[in-house]
Amino acid sequence: MVTEFVPVQELSKSLKAVPKNYIAPEDKVPVVTREPGKSVPVVDLCDFNLSPEQHERVVREIASASSEWGFFQVINHGIDVTKPQKVSREFFELPKEEKLKYAAKEYGFKSDGYGSKISNAADAVQLWRDYFFLCTSPKRNLDSWPAQPLQYKEVMSGLSDDFLMLTRKILGFLSEGVGLPTDYFEKCFGVPNQSILTNYYPGCPEPDKVLGIEPHSDFGGLTLLLQDGVPGLQVLQNNTWVVVEPIPGAITINISDLLELMSNGRYQSVIHRVKVNASRPRMSIASNYSCLFDSTVAPAPELIDEDHPQLYKPVKFGDYVQEVVKKGPTGKAYMFINHDSKPEYMLLPKH
Questions:
Q1: Are 222 and 255 in contact (CB under 8 A)?
Q2: Torsions phi, psi for 335 (to 5 deg)
Q3: In terms of C-beta density within 10 A (0-12 exposed, 13-18 middle, 19 or more buried), how is residue 268 classed?
Q4: For the whole model, what pTM was predicted?
Q5: How far, in Å, CA of 75 to CA of 284, rounded?
Q6: Contact, 286 vs 225, CB < 8 A?
Q7: CA-CA distances (angstroms) from residue 32 to 232, 276, 290, 317?
Q8: How far apart are CA 314 and CA 296, in angstroms?
Q9: What are phi and psi of 99, to 5 degrees?
Q10: Is the CA virtual torsion 219, 224, 230, 231 positive or negative?
Q11: Where do the DSSP E strands lie in 36-184?
């Protein structure tokens, strides 16, 4: 059960210094590193009006980005991103009392709700962020969604449908990219377990002392993200933090842990983080696509051979999520081979 919380958005209105429980260890505080000419790949989907040659290009570009970066942005994807951003921002502009009517009742994104802290770990540093979490598939309880703004339910429900459609198409490209049938990964996931998480990062009086989101990889299958125009998302690439520069109308997509496991490491879930700033609030809307909690996930047998030995043991997704909830998102969520907090059941013994 979640105890009563004070939204970070409210703290930011009056504080001149960050409370102690929000101050991150110095080794975790983001330091921006920019490498000239380095940027996350951008893939043009041409509104899916693709010739055979363009289809091959999209498959090739998405597969390359997913193996080398684990991140890419897509443009000309056919989804209206302005309305979801508008109603989500209007929700966070509501009075505190109205927003708290929808306060989350549990940690770990188990139910719809408004909140700030996601982990029940006693020693977890609190993030400089508020959120609203929506369960959108396989069940969608619109009665628990905000009544204000008036169009919120309709717009966000429509966005979840659009994200499901786009996710299936991206999974098709990813399947083809490793020589599998187009519907292979979609069938592996089975009934979609989808959620939408809107993140709101208020301006911070001491941005160099806090975390928007600490370095982590996503524990699901595939994440789709709408950014507003404020930079903050950073991706770790070859030991360098690269800013994912917002592109108007683009959707940022990243490989999550389950797809790395299913692809036997051909695709990479990559560590990323969010840095906040002193004056400009930042908002993002993320869709997480995964499988049902009782599903067992394993590497595709077709991707295991003499040159590509099996890297991961099968894992029950619900068990994996519980590990993340207990300790909070940290590092490469328990899959990174050199990470101290990995659970051994995720990796086969080293030879």
A1: yes
A2: -110, -20
A3: buried
A4: 0.92
A5: 17
A6: yes
A7: 10, 11, 31, 33
A8: 6
A9: -65, -40
A10: positive
A11: 42-44, 71-75, 113-115, 130-137
Q: Return d(Cα 99, Cα 115) in angstroms, integer.
A: 9
> Hey, CA dihedral for 328, 292, 160, 149, is it positive or negative?
negative
User: In terms of Cα–Cα distance, which of 191, 284, 308 is closest to 231?
Assistant: 284
Whether residue 65 contacts residue 41, with contact meaning beta carbons closer than 8 Å, is answered with yes
Please report, as a single letter, which amino acid is at residue 163: F
pLDDT digit string, tens, across residues 187-234: 999 999 999 999 999 999 999 999 999 888 998 999 999 999 999 999
151 token code pair: 């169009």
Tokens of 251: 């959707």
Report the Cα 88 to chain-centroid distance in Å: 17
Give the phi and the psi of residue 189 in degrees, each rounded to 5: -75, -30
Q: How wide is the angle at C-alpha 80 spanned by C-alphas 141 and 255, nearest 5°?
A: 75
The CA distance from 103 to 95, in Å, is 13
The number of beta carbons lying within 10 Å of the beta carbon of residue 3 is 5
What SS3 class is residue 30?
Answer: coil
- d(CA 8, CA 201) in angstroms, rounded, equals 8
pLDDT tens digits, residue range 286-342? Answer: 999 999 999 999 999 999 999 999 999 899 998 888 777 666 666 665 564 433 344
In a 10 Å sphere around its CB, with 0-12 CB exposed, 13-18 middle and 19+ buried, how is residue 161 labelled?
A: middle
User: Helix/strand/coil (H, E, C) string of 235-259?
Assistant: EEECCEEEECCCCCCCEEEEECHHH
Tokens of 152: 């919120």
State residue 288 phi and psi, 5-degree precision: -105, 125
